[in-house]
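Box 3.1 A note on notation
Throughout this textbook, protein chains are presented in two layers. The first layer is the amino acid sequence; the second is a token string describing backbone geometry. Keep the layers aligned when reading.
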Amino acid sequence: MQDVNVENVNEQRGEKSIFKGKNPPKIIRKENLEALQRPVLLHLVHGKVKEFYSYPNEPVAIENLKRGLASLFQMQLSSGTTNEVDISGDCKVTYQAHQDKVTKIKALDSCKIERSGFTTSNQVLGVTSKATSVTTYKIEDSFVIAVFAEETHAFRMNSLQTIAGNIVSKQKLELKTTEAGPRLIPGKQVAAIIKAVDSEYRALPIVGQDFQSECKGCPSLSEHWQSTRKHLQPDQLSKAEAVRSFLAFIQHLRTAKREEILQILKAENKEVLPQLVDAVTSAQTSDSLDAILDFLDFKSDSSITLQERFLYACGFASHPDEELLRALISKFKGSFGSNDIRETVMIIIGALVRKLCQNEGCKLKAVVEAKKLILGGLERAEKKEDTMMYLLALKNALLPEGIPLLLKYAEAGEGPVSHLATTTLQRYDVRFITDEVKKTLNRIYHQNRKVHEKTVRTTAATIILNNNPSYMEVKNILLSIGDLPKEMNKYMLAVVQDILRFEMPASKMVRRVLKEMVAHNYDRFSKSGSSSAYTGYIERAPHSASTYSLDILYSGSGILRRSNLNIFQYIGKAHLHSSQVVIEAQGLEALIAATPDEGEENLDSYAGMSAILFDVQLRPVTFFNGYSDLMSKMLSASGDPVSVVKGLILLIDHSQELQLQSGLKANMDVQGGLAIDISGAMEFSLWYRESKTRVKNRVALAIIGSITVDSSFVKAGLEISAETEAGLEFISTVQFSQYPFLVCMQMDKDGVPFRQFETKYERLSTGRGYISRRRKESLIAGSEFPLHQENSDMCKVVFAPEPESSSGGWF
């Protein structure tokens, strides 16, 4: 390659061009320019490159530019589909031959080439990417007189499509002049001829080779942490800047060694250490896993918070591997300083099993072992606590082979065990809720074999109605309304009305049954009570939606039995259970001298909260357990909420390393993080005969998408990011001094600031660079979310004052 020049494709850059006033040797560097000018030799057989000969020990980035040029010489004059090996790897290509041109279309998604990369398995949190490659050979008098190649790579984030970008890479080869070449060299073997030309030539792969640009004078991991840690102080976690810092530090951790990471962990103080544990675990490298396992002592009960943060970060892992699952199995078989941590380890093992199976890893040795551990443990469990632990693990793993065990515990187990087994069945996909499963659920709902708590019965009915119910199943459920305990009557009626109003899949069958007067009459549909079920849209678009549902079940005496708040995200056919917060209470009737409902006469006093976050079931939290514990909590109650989950989560994690046909290297990365704090509280006043439940969500979100193109001597990039901070609080108050008792439900949502940033940059390896930034801010107004279908005796919903929305252009 002679007369090498480097120009800016953007001619409008003018005086700001990073190449202004610099000659090629200064831009490319002298050793790179010399390598470019050394020729390569190709062994062509019927238009295909059989061997690529170059000099050894040349810079990989320069060799790749030569490979990109050599790949253009590979073609055929007839139409058809074949496989070719070129700089992009072993790829499927299709030729379309015409009189004056040949078009080659390369299926880039078929190319087999070793490159690092990973993505989030759930499409709601995933990234859609698309790539095309078209090369046109212009032919005149049987000679190729020009070659034009264009390759594009584009990406967009599925749930926030403003996070998007694309790369366009072009090559042009034109015939300028013809002249006599060197004399032919006769010989029987190609190797001998190559040696005669220059003995230093070596046969090298034509497939592009990976390289890393040197980072001269870059800060160490410890220096990066010192600039990051101020943003991760506990009082800063509600800000988006904390999430940005968290995401940036993860990138540095992914290139760090075990010793560096361990040194930082050991030196940090207790206020920032939980956030550092989140980041180290989220890095998901062998070095970061070794470091955090060396640092944490599961036999001690002095670092329970750190152990819990590590385990939840494992559960939310974007691309877990077998090594992580094997490490947790090993820990579970050891000893623990806290039984809560032992339970959490097993629950997270279940979450990892599901994620690995979703990525076609169900047959991995560690996954097979984990399945045996969960199912075997559940089958042999003697203590109620162990049964609950393995059920929670199965609620995450969702193993089809665990359904028979779930049915056994759902029908024959005692209250809490039976309820957990049925809620676990509720998470299974519709294809697993077979007629056999529904037979058992029907027996539970209609109490054919034994009396069940109404939380178990209502869950069983909900599963039936949500999974292709038959005509008789719907009819029997409708006919039961009127013969149920008072508040259960109202709850089941609300569930049926919600199915009809929201047009759920079962609505057509319910409407068929309601044509019968025996099922649809005033007596049945006029039942009073305060229990409710309501589903609505948070956001709705042609290809995506976000829904919320709230159902509340009271006991006949007016005390909360269960409140269940769910948020789901849908994109196309994919869905994500973003969050679920369930508050349960039982056995509190004695406090107000009320009569318990049927089947609940001997229940112990209990209140607690359970949460699902981004499809991961967390370990439930207990407010009180037993009458004495209840009285001590009531006498010393501060009203402070109990934290269910708090921390930094790596939510979106997509990385692609691309080998462009031109020889350049490119990267596409999208990372999204969340600082989250979900807490809940239950207050009970005998004096005012009032109970109150409160669920509070605080989140800060940041998403960063970036594209870089690197030639080793010049680098260009685009970064697009978005951030927001939001809060959502749900409060339910019940006054049970009279019947029907008064209920007030509030869902307060503040105005949400939304900020977007765009940064473009170009940088020479010598340090000179160009950068441009744009920013856009807006305030998303508060939204009204109905929580109930009726107005009678109901403070239905109180909304936050709606702020004035402001939107600005780029500036």
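The two ends are 43 Å apart (CA to CA). Residues 791-811 have pLDDT under 50 and may be disordered.
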